[in-house]
Amino acid sequence: MEPEPRRLLIFDLDETLVHASEFSLAHPCDFEVGTYLVYQRPFARELIEFAAARFDLAVWSSSSAAYVAAVVERLFAGVPLRFAWSVERCVQRVDARSNSYVYIKDLRKAQKFGYTLERMTIIDDSPEKIARQPRCHLSVTPFTGARDDVALPALLQPLNALRLV
Ligand SMILES: [Mg+2]
User: Fold this and answer.
1) Domain with 71 in it: what CATH number?
2) CA within 20 to 30 Å of 38's CA: 24, 66, 68, 107, which one?
3) Total of domains in the chain
4) What residues have their beta carbon closer than 5 A to ion ligand 1?
């Protein structure tokens, strides 16, 4: 019998795994991308390694392709990814309430890698970006650089449960 295919776990970057700012926080940044100072969320690398042992991984950010490539190179070094997508793969919509753009991540686009929507989960701090597939969304609070942030270790349990679904 064929083993069950692994689930695809997709990571958002900004405010999920990192916080990037043009302004310095009270503590030093972890690395720089262009004019941005990038602060890694506590436990980010540990979570990635935990996830890589259990799921197929991908990245989907609504930032630019160059920024995504630079952050992935630092944060996911040595970890295979099915894809690392940027804003080009998002669907741009105008949000009537704020009169600003929302970049939607329509997970159906990732089905071409051989995963059904039922076998996909995205960890993202922005529910409005996953509005089309809310059942695939594992929500996390936005990270704004705090060194005592503990949201990522709290994902270990739900991720373990997800693996058994
Ligand atoms: Mg985000």
Assistant:
1) 3.40.50.1000
2) 107
3) 1
4) 12, 14-16, 125-126
